[in-house]
Design brief:
Alkaline Phosphatase, subunit A; two-stranded antiparallel ribbon; alpha/beta; 48% helix
Length: 502
């Protein structure tokens, strides 16, 4: 018996060692004594499983190995991985393939490769364990181990990482929002109430930017001249700029807050049971367009895009996806009628920043060397896109309104970048809002006067747009500092956040 014991200890694929190695990353991530103690119990549970059944033990090791990679990746790039795991799962599920590819390209680095090597090493030990390790124990001990395993599992099954699958299934089943809103829209299409259409604008253009931190725009005082066109209009007193924060640091929540009555404190219900401003303009006899350089598979935004008379999504490409394709669309577009609303959803400064610009315009920084340089080039490129859109609509010589706003902002540093952090940073919410009007509109002056009191929250943008265009007479701006990070479950106070520490 002693010889067998000695022989088994010679092999480094002993289940005790495998259990310790697989739980070690989880011990590192554990941020409370309760979680740390839970990981210790988990390692004991794994050792007990190895005495009960090889397949049971191997299944849990494989499962935890995958979670080791995911949770360590989240820890390195996004902070505490245990905070609102459901939102992170939902984000991964809802991201279109092009965005997932961009994420992997941008955020999988050397640290992730080392984590993968570590996990694969454990899987290799597991492979040898399955092939060679033998442990014969009496039946009564096996029954005792089964009782202990059940007791420990009962303590742990509702907690990460053992509850990860249940959380994943919960997110998969939470899809009623799309069907519920689709049903509401089918019953509330609305009829044209203003056939003559006495609103003050003929062409209304809403440009939805992506991941734009206004502090990287020279229009808002940035040291590099990243927005020369917007700067020029502003100096000529032809452009209004506003101080505004995003109500969310996620596109799928922030775009609905711009275009529908959805807000921070009542997002879900207001989104499901409301039409967007696209329908508001349709019932005022505007022909409505949704023109997008983002993925048509994004169901959160698609549910709003589907309200437009005309939907156009630029073709998917395996190479760079730049916003010049929007300009190409307008080069072929002819005005169908006098009154038209265009909602233009651009890629803007979405990661990977290197894939957002091409040779159609000169770069601001010809030889970018870090994330800040690449990001600033996307801001400069977007300024040129806006300029071309402006020139196209100015050539039509109608009463024109252009609104440019971003869905959310971005943390930008030479070594760190992105959005969706939890705990979150102010950098993720400080967005631009600029308005151009080819005619004098006293309501925009009034809006700017209101903005001098306090920054706006973009959660009421649909009301603001309807007011300045003359569709309604209630401005209803929001001065709220309440925002949420990742999902409506995480409401935070913007004023109590900090900027990313460089």
């Amino acid at each position: 018996m002693s010889k067998i014991h000695i022989r088994n200890c010679k092999f480094f694929y002993n289940p005790i060692i495998i259990s310790f190695l697989i739980v070690l990353p989880l011990l590192y991530i554990a941020n409370t004594p309760k979680k740390f103690f839970g990981m210790i119990l988990l390692s004991i549970l794994l050792i007990i499983f190895s005495k009960i059944n090889k397949i049971l033990f191997s299944t849990f090791i494989f499962y935890l190995g995958i979670l080791d990679f995911i949770l360590l990746h989240l820890k390195i790039h996004w902070g505490d991985p245990y905070l609102d795991i459901e939102s992170k799962i939902s984000l991964a599920i809802d991201s279109p393939l092009s965005e997932t590819t961009g994420y992997l390209k941008s955020y999988i680095g050397y640290s992730d490769i080392l984590i993968a090597i570590y996990v694969l090493f454990i899987f290799l030990l597991l492979y040898f364990y399955i092939l060679k390790y033998k442990s014969e124990i009496p039946l009564f001990l096996k029954l005792l181990f089964i009782c202990l395993a059940i007791s420990i599992y009962t303590l742990l099954y509702r907690h990460v990482p053992l509850d990860f699958i249940n959380r994943y299934l919960k997110v998969l089943n939470d899809n009623t929002i799309f069907e519920d809103r689709k049903e509401f829209l089918s019953l509330n299409k609305g009829k044209i109430i203003n056939k003559k259409n006495t609103t003050m604008y003929d062409k209304i253009v809403i440009i939805l930017g992506e991941s734009v931190n206004k502090n990287h725009m020279s229009l808002y005082g940035y040291k590099k001249v990243t927005t020369p066109f917007l700067d020029m209009l502003y100096k000529k007193n032809e452009l209004y700029r506003f101080n505004i924060i995003s109500g969310s640091n996620q596109t799928k929540y922030s775009i609905p807050m711009i275009l529908t009555p959805a807000n921070v404190l009542n997002w879900r219900n207001n989104f499901i049971n409301s039409r967007s401003i696209i329908n508001d303009f349709k019932i005022n006899n505007y022909l409505t367009y949704w023109i997008s350089n983002q993925s048509p598979l994004d169901r959160w935004v698609k549910t709003i895009a589907g309200e437009a008379d005309i939907e156009y999504f630029t073709p998917e490409t395996k190479t760079k996806k730049t916003d010049y394709s929007i300009i190409e669309y307008f080069n072929e577009h002819k005005a169908v009628q006098l009154k038209e609303l265009f909602v233009i959803h651009i890629m803007g400064s979405h990661f990977d920043y290197r894939d957002r610009i091409d040779s159609h315009y000169k770069q601001l920084i010809e030889n970018p060397s870090n994330y800040v340089d690449y990001y600033d080039n996307t801001i400069y490129y977007t300024d040129k896109i806006i300029e071309d859109i402006y020139k196209y609509f100015k050539s039509i010589e109608n009463k024109l309104l252009i609104i440019y706003i971003s869905d959310h902002a971005e943390v930008i540093d030479k070594n760190k970048y992105g959005h969706g952090y939890l705990p979150t940073f102010k950098d993720e919410y400080e967005i631009p809002l600029v308005i151009y009007s080819s005619i004098y509109n006293p309501r925009i002056d009034e809006l700017q006067r209101l903005n001098k009191k306090h920054y706006f929250n973009h959660e009421n943008m649909s009301s603001i747009i309807n007011w300045i265009t003359g569709i309604n007479n209630d401005v209803n701006v929001s001065y709220s500092s309440s925002v949420f990070s990742l999902s409506p479950r995480n409401i935070r106070n913007y004023t109590k956040m900090e900027y990313f520490s460089k």
